[in-house]
Amino acid sequence: MELDPLLLSRLQFAFVVSFHAIFPVFTIGLASYIAVLHALFYKTANPAWDRLAQLWTKVFAVAFGMGVVSGIVMSFQFGTNWSNFSQSTANFMGPLLSYEVVTAFFLEAAFLGVLLFGRGRVPQGVHLFAAIMVAIGTFISTFWILSANSWMHTPAGVEVINGVFRVTSWTEAIFNPSFPYRLAHMAMASFITGGFVVAGVSAWYLLIGRDVEANRKALSMCLWMLLVLTPTQALVGDFHGLNTLEYQPTKLAAMEGNWETREGAPFLLFAWPDQAAQQNRFEIGIPYAASLILTHELHGEVPGILEAPPEEQPPVALVFWTFRLMVGLGFLMIAVSLVGLYLRRGGRIYHSRRFLQTLRLMSVTPFIAVLAGWITTESGRAPWLVYGMMTHAEGVTPSLTGGMALFTLLGYVAVYGVIFYAGTYYLTRVIRYGMQQKEEEKLVDDFETPKRPWSATSTPFDDDPTKAEG
Amino acid sequence: MEMFDLSLIWALIIGFGIMMYVLMDGFDLGLGILFPFAPDEDARDVMMNSVAPVWDGNETWLVLGGAGLLAAFPLVYSVFLPALYIGVFLMLAGLVFRGVAFELRFKSRRDRRNRRMWNRAFSWGSAIAAFAQGAVVGKYIQGFETQNGVFVGGAFDWLTPFSILTGIGIMIGYALLGTTWLILKSEGYIQAWAYKLTPPLLVAVLVIFAIISIWTPLVNPLVWDRWFGIIGIIWILPALTLLCMFVVYWSVKRRRELMPFMATLGMFLFTYLGLVVSKWPMIVPPDYTIWDAASAPESQLFLLIGVLFVLPFVLGYTFWSYWVFRGKVRVGEGYH
To answer: What GO molecular function annotations does the UniProt record carry, in alphabetical order (chain A) (predicted)?
Structure first.
């Protein structure tokens, strides 16, 4: 079998980005949560907030470290596997990605150290300020990355001269048409991810009866936030969908599994898209629902995949199913949030073991939803790398052979496999031994210890800290 | 916009960034290379503790250089990375393993097998990353096969006898930076070990430096012209390099502590400058200059504003963290 460097490069990029993405999605939300905890502690002086801030800062440190390591690899992949793309779009992509790096450095240099190691060493107000700045910083990074990504979906503010993109308007290019929706959708996804992870961990602590006071506060807070955010996210997603309808109708048609342009299109709950036959083999749908959602009219016109020639169509089944996975998980999250509201009466959210167990399990769902949504939007763009302007095939490195691409794909899978295993293993240890009186007594680092993110945790990798004598 | 030569400014910024990277990450990669040969586990603790606070700050220069290249000289990015495809992968994999080893080695307390595993990740990661960087330099000297600004060579073009030599050269050079750094940061038997190791490494570097100096003009007509042509003045750079080597030898003999490290840094600095001067203004040899490889001026300017704003902070932070962690690292200190 001939190895296809293009396909392997796409797989490789998808793999590396998916691996990387789960960490920032989590840390962006968590950074804001930590800032809120600091603010609450500053205002009320209740040490429970401080205990929570301590635990989550440690978790943040480890996840942040993982994100940085995997991000470095990603930045080089543009050049190794997509050199034509890099060369053509560097006038826009280069400065944007650099600004992301520069922002991240600036914040790491200035505030991350204070947040991670400043407890008891800098005034409480300064510590709070650093926490807020780190939270803001994560958003500035998100701003640049999502602007670059959105631009690839809805390019604007550029002209192509001899195969090279030149920026004609920075504001149009940066604030391209899909950017506001993508940024809002992603930012909310980050908050929801952080919310479900914190809720899940707090639920577990409550189940085993550890630091009940603090974890009840955390759980209640998260559930209020999720109650507001999960339905709002559905609304934001709907707006994003309308934007996609306007700018990337083929992607939207693939999400709907709608082959022919038609009026009064149903929303398909289940279908078996057959790309070769250019139709669905089987479908069950709610009549008129897609038209109603997308055009707010029963008989509104919904575009079909067939508007694009077969070679310009995305992989329909993949887009169709990942979209449903994301939406389905979204509704599940809304449902859990509503159950939370119902169980508030009589404080049952703290006592219902079944609910707490459910929350524990729910902590992985936002990650799956984010990855599914990401696959939907990125595969839905195929075959375009820069929508309507440059295809994947045009962007890939010309000298790349299938063998090379396969070698590095397997290599990255192996490297990340080891790192991910070590990292998550360690993260679960931090959580497992967190929120215990004993650990807080062990003030490990004095001021002259290394200021690396992971140094913020003193949990050992292998032995049991509850038995270690320090 | 014509008032400034933006490409020249960017060449200086990126040149500076690469130099900072080589000088600063060099010694911590070097310690990784020396790791398996360390006298004992305590010595390894000291070695790692001596760089733990600063190594990732050192590596940020690599990322800054990479991102800056994409923005300012995209041609370099899109020729070098495909040409060095396998090498880049090895370097990244090396750096990733090494970075995680830094964190987890300290947190593996009881289980010796775990600790040995992270030791190995650290030393192999460092050695591979160093070799790959040296091979990049070799490939840069030899030049790239391009057509219309696109790399057209094969996957292993970068692996030539010459680039293997430069790869090994950098490994030994970094190891030398490692021993002289350790002389500065340690004491007792660890320092004695570092003192003992420095002269043989120095001789090895000298031999490789000599071979490369003879080989380079032979594989490269531009360098030949430059060295033996009108600008003979650049001989001052290799002369200064040799002087630095002598100072390393002399100061190690006298058991000086700071001087060997400083002189080794000087060695790297002058070799680097010599390389730059020999190739200037070629940035993708043999065909493209910094102006050929430049991105659009509006893009260069757009990023320049941000970088000029942040650079002082990054530099300040760098100096600050070295200042905070100045002084000797002792056995049993540092972080556990």
So the answer is: electron transfer activity; heme binding; metal ion binding; oxidoreductase activity, acting on diphenols and related substances as donors, oxygen as acceptor
